Every structure is written in structure tokens, then in C-alpha cells.
Amino acid sequence: xxxxxxxxxxxxxxxxxxxxxxxxxxxxSGRKAWVLTVEKPPLAVSHNEQxxxxxxxxxxxxxxxxxxxxxxxxxxxxxxxxxxxxxxGARLNEKQRSEVLRYLNAGGSVVFDGxxxxxxxxxxxxxxxQLTVGTVSDEFYPEMYLIxxxxxxxxxFSPPETIRELMVDSESxxxxxxxxxxxxxxxxxxAAPLDAHTNEGVSHYPYFAKYLSETFGMNTSLRSPRLxxxxxxxxRPGADLNRLAAQWRQAGIxxxxxxxWTFFSQYSFNYGEFVRACHRNGVSVYAWFILPATTPxxxxxxxxWREKTASGADGRVGWxxxxxxxxxxxxxxxxxxxHQVLKDYEWDGVNITELNFDADFKDWLRPDRFIPMxxxxxxxxxxxxxxxxxxxFAADSPNYYKTNPGALQRFLKYxxxxxxxxxxxxxxxxxxxxxxxSWEVIVTMMDSLHSKFVQPALGVDSKRIVALMKDFxxxxxxxxxxxxxxxxxxxxxxxxxxxxxxxxxPRRLMFDINVVSRDVKKTTLPSATATGTELARTVAAAxxxxxxxxxxxxxxxxxxxxxxxxxxxxLTQAVTMDSxxxxxxxxxxxxxxxxxxxxxxxxxxxxxxxxxSADGVxxxxxxxxxxxxxxxYHFLDPGTMPARLLSISGDLLDAxxxxxxxxxxxxxxxxxxxxxxxxxxxxxxxxxxTDVPVEGSGANWAVVFxxxxxxxxxVTNTKAGVAVNLWGWASASAITAFGGIATLLMALIxxxxxxxxxxKQLVTRSS
Length: 767
Fold this sequence. Notes:
TIM Barrel; alpha/beta; 25% strand; eight-stranded parallel β-barrel; Rossmann fold; disordered N terminus; 31% helix
């Protein structure tokens, strides 16, 4: 049985704080790291040192370069990671090396790379032989095919017996990375440099960030909830749609662009159930169109509307079934189909992607891959220019493209005019629907301003399409062409410098990243698919350059599963957080999730905060204080919160808890999907009662709100229900208060009796 003192402490704790437990689960951010460097390093050594800094910064660490010659004392904070590359380790004297080992033994965290003979004190045994490494296997992700190009020669060694393997040579099974304990500390060892070829940290260990977190613990609790991704039903045949949508939410995907063309003669994708499943999980869904292609069904039923190549074949140049939009009947049928698809389902926006011609990447003038050559195109161009464009591919014609480049340029300009006109017409078709449904319209355009291929081969003049933003309200999503897929991540910063001069409102600019198989033979990239550090740095650069902070990935299926966590972390680079035992200070330019959250009350800036779920605490942009302690001036608050905002596909700006439900403010480019833990009985948007789509799923309720910036009041509890809850709270509080007061009175009586006895004893002794 608790003593009266213990009972009193419990009572006061329940009265003034939200929980009686002394500490909460910690949110962490921004672990520090020291990288030992050398003076005037050779290029390979410099690459390696800069790679450590690049990777650490990418994943939210705070790196500091420390000259090995100046290193006399290890970090005072044992939580700081000390990195000792081979070049720096070779420069350390015996006293400095002893300091590194002292730090490790005392509980510090250390990273070593390459042969360092003094590591025999940790249990290393060097064989004085070398091994050539080309193909490697990561122990966390063995399904990934990884190569080292060029091959790397490493020193063969035998590690200590208690290690955890992280990477091995696929042929010899020689360990290439491992972690181990030493004294009270832990260390990570890399047999090769992190990256001696670039400053990007990508060449050898793509999952170095994973090694750090597994060895030393997670660096940060911050996660971004703002990823966007493409989805093709053909990639997920037979998938459980609700489970798939739940996985996307957990991966930080808040918007998917769903391929809207999966209509075959014998099968059509269940878009209605798909959209509902996404909404139940707080994911918004845009209809993704790939005009001039429509559907395989239309292609089959109307062969007369198929586009034609210069060889006379049907115009399926790449993977798309391109239709002849210059045929009036075909164009009208395509638009009617698009309108019907948009009408039939509860979409939240539209994405018009690559509204241009297809071509062969290696030889875009191949006659059997060159479009358009339909009868309508040929007749129209002949009327405008005086010759049939088919003559461009006839070697005996005076207009043969190899001997008459001027004739080819006239036709290429004509193709560009068609592409611009298509955009203008399709955007005109969408404008009334956009206004009526409060949708965002995205135009995803291949970049022609940094490419020698896109404009002549695909007919895209990026400047002319951007100019349409003056007449139409759409978001421009710039897609990098295949020739850039192997370039360093900072390519997106270069793109941004170009496009931010053309797009006046940076909120209407974003970038698309193609995560697809590439030819990496002439690079030092370890994987044909961008992954790990490379993909993380690419996403970070694209988001930083866009101005809106938005980035889209093609596709949710091609991105390696393990990368979603990395991407959620790198999008929080600009966030700073100071952690305490029961409170945190956050400064963030965009909404951020703090994970994992406990099932308890949280207070943001001194007010009860409703945006809490099993996924985490969602904090809006700005500077905020978060705490688990109830402020003293909230001592009359109910002990439990009736309604919570579990998820939102837009940006949450602020929120309030009300006795009858919630009030919150948000901003969303398209319709916003909000998931709550209670059923909405009444909804007001900007002070007006509004009927909005509601989807129930178990104990949760998804509500769809209009795009833009709005104030929403949601009633989830009747006045009678509020009265019952208040009565229950008041009764419980009264009982608690009565118990506390009774305990206090009993304590006073107890002290009074003891005091009287003590006084009586003293009087008796003195007499």
C-alpha cells in the first residue's frame, strides 16, 4: 500500500501534468560528428573526407572537420561520432591513437576505414595480402545487386570474433564492413574508403546511413510526411489496395498519381475502391493521364485513330499507345473519355504527363520510331510548307533530312507547335473542372532547356509550355530526361536556377525523379537503380530547388522499399530541434512528423495539440515548443482528448481542440484528405456549413476538403455528449480532489497527533 506521501505526489502529478510517469519517450535530432582530416590531401583522400561530410549532412548529422594534427582530445560528448579515415589515422601519433581508444572504451562512437595497423588493439589481424573487389552484397538488403566500379583493392584482414557483418565481397565472402563493441563503446569499420572517386559518398557503401543508425542508434526522430509518387496498377496486379495505401502512408507518401488509363477490352482497374482505400489512409489521389495515349481499349477498338510512324507502322514508339489527336474525331473521343474518368471517381487533382511525342533515345530519327506521320499531319504540313513530311525520310527526295536540314527544322518546329497547342487545348478542357472541384492541375514536362535530345526528338519547347502558366493555373513538374539519370544529385539545383527565373511563383514549381534502371558502366555508381545515399541526396536537391519543397518519384513500385525511410529523413534537413526530457523546441520550414509518438496528450505552444497518431506528432511549420506536461493554466482541461487529427494530405497550419470537436487550418494544392478518430457530425469550411465526402474505416473517418487555404471546424460530439463527458470528467476530478484533500487532512491530523505526543513527552521529561 502506498504511503500518504506517495499518494499525495501522485495526486499532484495527476492534477498538474498530463501523465504521472516521470519521463517520456525521447525525440532526437542532429547528432554531432567529427571527421578527422589531413592537410593538403591527395584528390582521393579529399573525396573521401568530403564524402563523409556530405553523407552526414544529408541525413541530419552535424559534421565538423577536425585536422588530425590538431586532435588532442576526443569530444566531451560521448554521443558525438568520431570518424577516423585511413589517411588521418596514419598521421595520428601514439598519444592521439590512445585518446581515440579511450573515447571508444568510455562509451564513444567511432568509425574507421581502410588498413590502420594500430587497430590490432581492437582485435584486427592483417594478412599483408590484397583482394580485388567488384561485386558486393549488403547484409541488410541482399536482394540489391551492387558493384564497385572501378574495382577496389582492399587489405585482407581477420576481424574480432563478436562482429556484426554489414557488407561482404560476393565472391570471396571477405567482410567489407562490420560493427562491434569495444569497452562501453561501439565502432563501425569500412574496409574501403567511403568514396575516393567523388564528393557524394555513393561509390562503395550506398547504405552507410543505415550502418550508422544500426550501430549507434537513430540520429533523428524527424520524418517528412510530404512525399508524392506515381502509381501504375499494372505494377501491382492483385494487390490488397487498403494494405498498399497504408504502406504508402507509413512511407510518408501523401499523394499518389494513379495511372488512369488501365481500361482493357476484358478488364478495368477498380478505381473507385482504390480511391476510397487511399482516402481511408489519408492519401490523396490524382488522375494521371499520358496523352496522346488514352487506353489500350481505345487503341484496340479504333485502329484508324492510331498515330503512324515515318515507316507507316502504328505509332507505338515506346511503351505508350499513341493516338492521333490531330484527327478531330479521335481528339473529341479522347477528351470525352478523360472527362468521363474524371467524373466517375473522387479524384483530388489531375496530372497531365509528357504530352508530347515519343522517340527512340539512341536514334530519334529512325523512320520506324519517328512520329507523327498520320494522314492529318501530313496533309496539314503539306498545306503549310509545300511538301509532304514523309519525304524527309526518302533518300531520293530533295527534302531528305540528311541533305536538307532546313526541311527537317521546319517539320520539327511544326511538331513543337502541335505540342504547345495540345497543352493549351487540354488545359482549356480541364479549367472548368479544376475550378468546380477545387483541384490542382499538374503539367509534368520533360526538360528541354538542359537537353540536346528532348526538344528535337519529343517536340518539347519548355519555355513555351512554361509561358502557358500566364493563362492557366497549373503546377509545373519538371522531369529530367534519361541523359541526366546518372548525373550527380546537384543537377536539380542547376535546373532550379533555370526554371525559377521562368516560374514567378515558386509554389507552382516542383521536380520529378525517375527511379528506373540505368546504364551505370561509365560511372562510379554502385547500383543500376538509384538507392541509398544517391537517391536521398537527389531527393534533397530536388526539394530544395523547387521552392515549394515538393518532389515526386517515379514510381512507388520502382523505389527500393528500404529507401522510403531515408527519403523521409532527408526532407527534414532544414529542421532544427532541441530536445529535453519532457519538452522540445522545433523550428521547421514545413510540417514535420516527430516519431514515434506515445498514446498520451501533447501540448504545442502551451495548448492541447490534436495532431497525434500512432505515426507520430505532426507539427506545423514555424517555431514551436512541444511538451508532454500540461501547463498550469490548463489544470481544468479534461484528462483525455475526445477528437484527434490522425493524418492530412495537405499542410497543417494550426489546430485547436474544442469541446465539440476540432478546429484546424490547412493549405493544400489539391483537395486535402483528413483522417480523424471520430465521425464528423457537422463540417464548416471558412464559417459555412459544407457537405464533404466522408469515408469510414473501423474507428477512423476520412474527410475530403477543398484545395487551397481554409479554416475548418468539425463537430464530432453533440452538446449532450459534451455535457456527459464534462460530467464524467468533473465527477472523476471531484473524486480525485476529494481523495487528495482527504489524504491531506489525514496527514495533518497524523502530524497533529504526533506533535502533541512529542510536546507531552518533552514536558514530562523536563518536569
